[in-house]
């Protein structure tokens, strides 16, 4: 039976947060769990249903953050550890250090977590934790196939649909992406009462070490300004509107020679040659 | 304080410099102060010595690794640590791409040496008063905000750049030192690279594909979509479509392209029977080349396209499929001739 650990990160929900232009700060700040971490947890629960496993969830959070324990209890987990440390969000890399310190007390066969957190977009925790524990790590994994209990095949997606397949031996830390399986609705399990007893909250003291990275400023998203052609005054209001909408009837002038009005072999050959050429360019 | 700039150059399959490589070189040049040393570390699986001797750096250190090992970050990390041990510890900034392979190397090295790291940089600017202090712009909260971060004083700093912003054209230089580092043994790792493959067009996401086919109202009620499916198979391109195509049930919801769906950045987009509403055009603003097929000559898509055909898709697509098939067939034959 495998001993699995899932690192779940409480994050500020990027879908709810809004920049308040009047007060120059964020509003609608809600806490949620990192989507990729939950996907890893869902995958582990599905594995447990088929093969039996022991699942421990570890969270590291700032005490100010609201942790929705009920949401975690819906999953078929065996134990949940919540590490609370003041000022955790201000220290870059402190979450990884805290998690690694806790993980050193146990012996897990596999550690799963999201490759990157959706709020801070740092993508450092998996590699940092792995390095502090001296175990190998592979991130951006979107598919895990079990060959043997301790030998897995994992797939990493690169840009442009390229898939890399790796064979990994446990123990390992795997960073996953949100496309690891289809996200499904998790009903309320009756087993939550049993798990509730196994939730431990550890309150830790703030570290003395100062962060060596300073956040100078957080700003509103800068808009992408694009300039369009301003229609001439000589056009009637109707034509001006059509031009702005991109529906002007100046076919010959605008489209020129790039649009052919006949379907013949010559045109088709031209398109096919162009397609081949553009494909080569990439 | 003067910083030496050390670049860990990203390569394609260990054998080719890409736009990403030159983009990182450009970033390094922008960061390097006068008289600062610019050093390149190249871990490759088959670059020629002439290519390495033309890199625009002061010093180039390179290591050759078999392709199977080149694909695993752990080997890169071991090599990087050994090369790094050869440098005198001065003030250095290490630059990496944020590609998963290089990001893992950067993060692990920063942890091992206890030095700070800033990841996924979008833009780096120098402080007006102190040019050795840099300000890094990053995207947070799913692009809803930008944060500006800076390193506090440290001897070594690690910085990874968002690989989407790394783009440059090749240029050459004359390094004073080009040295191959002989690393005879690297410890075996429990991760083994098996294969690399192209995802099938049915599984491929429209946001990740190189070629995307888009269908619209124009194909609704047509005799069959077989020719479009054949074209998709030949070009290995997923089929997306306009809002109307989604509403007519021609495509699933997640394949909708436009302001109310996905924004694609494919190299080629083939719009079949799509008029090209402003919302749809918004979704294809990042596409390099557009081919439009529509029977309405006044369709707005013709103003966005690189090649357009005014006509029925049922006449155009089968012809195009045939032409592409013939082309592929002749290519295969040529390969056989060479092999034979």
Separation, N- and C-terminal Cα atoms of chain A: 46 Å
**Count of runs of 4 or more consecutive helical residues of chain B:** 10
Give the oligomeric state of the chains in this entry, treating copies of one chain as homo and distinct chains as hetero. heterodimer
Radius of gyration of chain A: 26 Å
Give the tally of β-strands of chain A: 15
Can you name the CATH architecture of the largest domain in chain A? 3-Layer(aba) Sandwich
Number of strands of chain B: 17
Mean pLDDT of chain A: 82
Averaged pLDDT of chain B: 86
Strand portion of chain B:
25-35%
Main sheet properties of chain A: 9 strands, mixed
Strand content of chain A: 25-35%
Q: Give the SSE order of chain A as H and E letters.
A: EEEEEHEHEHEHEEEEHEEHHEH
Q: Major β-sheet of chain B, in short? A: 9 strands, mixed
Instruction: State the CATH superfamily name of the largest domain in chain A.
Output: HUPs
Secondary-structure-derived class of chain A: alpha/beta
* Rg on CA atoms of chain B, Å: 24 Å
Distance between the amino and carboxyl termini of chain B? 62 Å
Describe the structure.
The complex is a heterodimer of chains A (282) and B (340). Chain A is α/β, with parallel strands linked by helices. Chain A is built from eight helices and 15 strands. Chain A has helices at 35-51, 69-73, 94-103, 125-133, 192-197, 237-244, 251-255, 265-281, and strands at 2-7, 10-12, 18-20, 25-27, 31-33, 53-61, 79-84, 110-114, 137-148, 151-157, 162-169, 172-176, 199-203, 213-219, 259-260. A nine-stranded mixed beta sheet of chain A has the order 11-10-9-12-8-1-6-7-13. In chain A, strands 2-5 form a two-stranded antiparallel ribbon. Chain A has a two-stranded antiparallel sheet with strand order 3-4. In chain A, helix 3 (94-103) crosses helix 4. The longest helix of chain A is centred in the N-terminal third of the chain and has 17 residues, at 35-51. Chain A is extended and about 75 Å long. Residues 251-256 of chain A have low confidence and may be disordered. Chain B is of the alpha/beta class. Chain B contains ten helices and 17 strands. In chain B, the strands form three sheets. Chain B has a nine-stranded mixed beta sheet with strand order 9-8-7-10-6-1-4-5-11, sandwiched between helices. The radius of gyration of chain B is 24 Å and the shape is elongated. The N and C termini of chain B lie far apart (62 Å). The model of chain B is unreliable at 334-340 (pLDDT under 50). At the A-B interface, helix 4, strand 9, strand 10, strand 11 and strand 14 of A face helix 5, strand 7, strand 8, strand 9 and strand 12 of B.
